[in-house]
Amino acid sequence: MVKIMAVVTTRESGFAGGTPVFLARDKEELQALSHSLEKILNAAAHQLNEDSFLLVYRQ
Length: 59
Description:
alpha+beta, 1 helix
């Protein structure tokens, strides 16, 4: 089973629902924040597009 843990994005709109959304100022912060959350949450970061990452936990 896969659980969506968080979304990291540079876009201020386009994501809704019960998943936490983290906003990054630029692409460098997007990469750094995704990598940090990947380690903290013990999750896998997957790039959805050039502006967004999805962090998922696989049980």
